[in-house]
Amino acid sequence: MDRIYADRRYLIIGFFLLIGLFFLARLFYVQIMVDKYILSANNNVLRYVTQYPARGLVFDRNGKLLVYNEAAYDLMVIPRQVKNADTMALCHLIGIDKEEFINRLQKARNFSPYRPSIFEAQITRENYGFLEEQLFLFPGFFVQSRTLRKYTYPVAAHTFGYIGEAGPEVIEKNPYYRSGDYIGISGIEKSYEDILRGKKGMKIRVYDVLNRDKGSFREGKYDTASMAGTDLYSSMDVELQQYGELLMTNKKGSIVAIEPQTGEILCVVSSPSYDPNLLAGNIRKKNYTLLLQDTIFIPLFNRALMAMYPPGSTFKLVDALIGQQEGVLTPDTRYGCPGGFPLGNGKKVACHPHPSPLDLVGAIQISCNSYFCRVFKSIIDKKSFASTRQSYENWRKEVMSFGFGKRIGIDIPGELNGNIPTPTYYDKYHGVDRWRSMTIISLGIGQGEIGITPIQLANLAALISNRGWYYPPHIIHGIGRKDSLNLAYNTKRNTLVDPRYFDIVIEGMGDVVTGGTGRIAQIDSVNVCGKTGTAQNPHGKNHSIFIAFAPRENPKIAISVVCENAGMGAAWAAPIASLMIEKYLKRQVKRKDLEERMINGNLINGKLPESERGQGNLLPD
Amino acid sequence: MREDKGIFYRIDWVVVLLYLLLVFIGWLNIYAAVYNDIHNNIVDLTQKYGKQMVFILAAIFLALGILIIDPKFFSQFAWFIYGFFLFMLVVVIFSGRVVAGSKGWFAFGGFGIQPAEFAKMATVLALAKYLGTLDVSLARFRSMMIAAAIILAPAVIVLLQHDTGSAIVFLALVIVLYRAGLTGFVPLAFIVLPVLGILALLVSKVILVAVLLLVAGIFYFYSNKKLRTIVLITGIFLGSVGFVFSVDFSVNHILEQHQRNRIHVLLGQVIDLKGAGYNVNQSLIAIGSGRVFGKGYLQGTQTKYNFVPEQSTDFIFCTVGEEWGFAGSSALVLIYLGLFTRIIFLAERQRSRFSRFYGYGVASILFFHFAINIGMTLGLVPVIGIPLPFISYGGSSMWAFTIMLFIFVRQDSYRYDLV
What is the DSSP letter of B172? Predict the structure, then answer.
């Protein structure tokens, strides 16, 4: 009788096949269509152990080691393996309290109970010694070696910069970086990050479900070795840098020295500064906060690159050059000075008493305000231009060819443009076509809206010594080996002023030192050319500025010194520049009295020592 | 008729070869699943693959033994065998030892025997014996009840051992009943009720009842509107509503916590990759990472490093999926389908009703194991720990399945002599 139901076999077989087919479809989906399972599989068993390369070293121009690496240790934890640990003992070893211990362990557990996370970063070698002996007592903890940045000399913090762990934004943008990697955050650590960092390697280890190491994956076939970072050769003369920082003790301001023929920076001092070692390793966060909170001295602020000052009388050199180029000034042009330059409304740009009238060299030597107001006026009022605006634009273009008003492109991050006001700015301020040469006459003596950074000032000295050209200043002159320069710094830039106009200006700068406003900068047997500047500013006392180069016949060093709120250029900036030049050219300073007076001068509290007032031999600008 | 020919001329070599193929695949994969560098000799008797080899050899001796027993023995002693194993199932509750939460094992030294595995074979024998009796008709209520009792008796005892998985397997025999003339409503209910059950857990019960009402209305609209029909439709409707509520109640109040978790995870209501969802997730990772051709024999990482639990027994299919890829795992599925259809084909050519229903019983039990086990590793059914026939590690299941299959091979070889 079951024959009646024989056809049901097809239904039954059909059902079997249907389920089988369903499985095939599911297998196809799971094994071929989607990727997430293969990825999870790799996550399960493979641990990618990063091999951190040593970061590149930095040497100074004389081969002295400036920046190097020291072994440091990250204490790692695998939360799942932590048991029966003598918590207090471990806390004691790394100097945290129990609460912090529990917090950190929980944080690690939240990340993953099975995978290692950093428990305490960058333990120094000394502290690691104690820890290492006892570490076997704490299952689940182990150390991973890293490196710590170290600085041989506690100077040039702004230039070196610092490194820190790559943040989430960086990781998102650049696939090279993973959480826990170090990256240069400022200074040359940042600008040369790609060169210094080297190449990370990767070891692939296989782990089982209990997180036990089962050896290399496929006998290490896919492992990659790390490659150490490339060394950098800095043009910095670290002794000069040290000396500069010493001279700037208790002063706000900066010193920038450049080798004129090459554009190589010899030193960049920004004061007040700090010991770069303060921002290395696990003390960085704490110290960084402290430095950041110092709103009075602002030690993190790199004045050499980021502070804009009115150049004051140093700008008269630019007037002299552009005036000649524009044909409104010759070396023989003479202007009288009736104690100042009348502005027409009863007021005048005051000048100090001096012989009158003066020619160009004399005007530079004495730094006559009237003379350069007239020069500036004759540039702007030149007949060949249809309007003030046009002649101003022409002037501005020439000024900017000196490297002013825009970043020079130094290889230390953070450089600012400075400011050479646009004609539009004056249009807005005074109204269109409502400003004339007399309206903006203060530009002629480097005052007003003009803003120039110390690096630009130093570059001005350099380009004058070169008679009209410069290489963009740079602090690194060799990558991997000496003198393998980045092409961008090997391209000469010319000013719009003809080289023949420079000689007379240089003569004037020579006279400034031999018998003018900067006599204090004289050095035995070295012909120094310089120019003082005293920049009026709304922040109090005038800034003391001096630019110079030496020796005159064969310039080896061009320098700018700015001392904020220190008074006349000859008071502080000129002697400091002079000492720097002496130090660099002669390697030792004979004028010990001057040196001592400069080092001990405390300008930060805004009060000059009694003995410094009314130095009779100083001529005002 | 053909008694002059030897047994090896009469057995169905297709079934035997598929069986040997599966057993061999199983052995290779157990080796891969528990492989380690220290014990890498495949015949090392201290390791699972060495033991499995012993189980396989013993199974082949058992198979040979069955092939020389008089084929009439099985139908004649069907009730006795059934009774014996029912008795054993009861005995094991009192004297057995607990393995993985179920009390279904006899211990012989370091060695365990699980009577539940053999009870499946015994039940198939008894069911075939009963259905093979000439005056039995499943159209009759009494016959239906007796058949149900034969199936449910061992199932209930196994359930008392807390071995839910093995108990559910007996329900597969409804396929035999269907072939024997049981109304199609019952197997249909076996398909519809789980679907309704899942919906009861996923969908709001108000909506579900409304939909059921709508379906009942449609049936009523197209029916002949006789009283009998109306009563039937109403009865089914009320039954369904009752079922929906009882599913919800039993999942939340009767099932044990781990079972409840497994169901929630399967339905995607709970994502718990470290707890109840761990097994299935790791299983899918292992299988999914095999891609088209797999990682190669012994190259699997998920199974070798123990990410997949129970990898040599219930989750053995993961090893196949990981190391042999889509090619290997789909080939295995096809081998099973070939075996099932071949058994059905052989069953239909039996002259003896006993032999035919027995064949269907074998196919049903094997299929059910296949469907639940692979469905579980693929995350399609809840985690129910039952072995993959002939592949999973274990002596009891290997022997029980072998005996069950070879009794049928023996029946088939004498099909002309059995009526």
Answer: G
